[in-house]
Design a protein that fits this description.
Blueprint lengths: L3 H10 L6 E2 L2 E2 L4 H12 L5 H12 L4 H8 L3 H22 L1 H19 L7 H18 L1
Antiparallel strand pairs: 1-2
Helix pairs in contact: 2-5, 3-5, 4-5, 6-7
């Protein structure tokens, strides 16, 4: 099978971390969403589930190829992919790790922008904003 990290690295290189905006859930590229769910919760699947899910979803093998390699039916592979996707989504709905990650990432980006501003603002205002953002990060952790 292809290198399983190649897809994950490509997604992270694109810096696509935005799942939510301030008004609610934001649509996300399906592959990015599946990759993030797998990155955060994939180890909670069985080895067999992981290998089938990685092959089809992350490495873009056909269901027919995976069914042949795994010795199961095409319908079995299809059902397993659906079931694994549901399992991963259920973990996120209960644990919210990706949502927290995205929120922290946004806060870190804000701090970075404040420390590299082209038009300087009042130093005390900037420090107060950085302190508020870092407090928000600590609360999230």
């Amino acid at each position: 099978m292809k290198n399983k990290h190649a897809c994950q690295e490509k997604i992270l290189d694109r810096r696509v971390f935005l799942l939510y905006d301030g008004l609610g859930e934001k649509p996300m590229d399906e592959l990015v969403e599946k990759t993030l769910l797998y990155d955060f919760y994939g180890e909670l699947l069985t080895e067999h589930q992981r290998s089938v899910y990685e092959a089809v979803v992350l490495n873009d093998y056909s269901i027919t190829e995976v069914a042949k390699d795994a010795g199961i039916s095409r319908q079995g592979v299809h059902d397993m992919i659906k079931r694994c996707g549901k399992i991963l989504e259920d973990y996120e709905s209960k644990l919210h790790l990706i949502e927290k990650f995205v929120h922290i990432r946004e806060n870190v980006d804000q701090i970075h922008e404040l420390t590299h501003m082209e038009h300087p603002m009042d130093e005390s205002t900037r420090m107060r904003q950085i302190e508020e953002i870092s407090s928000d990060i600590l609360e999230e952790l």
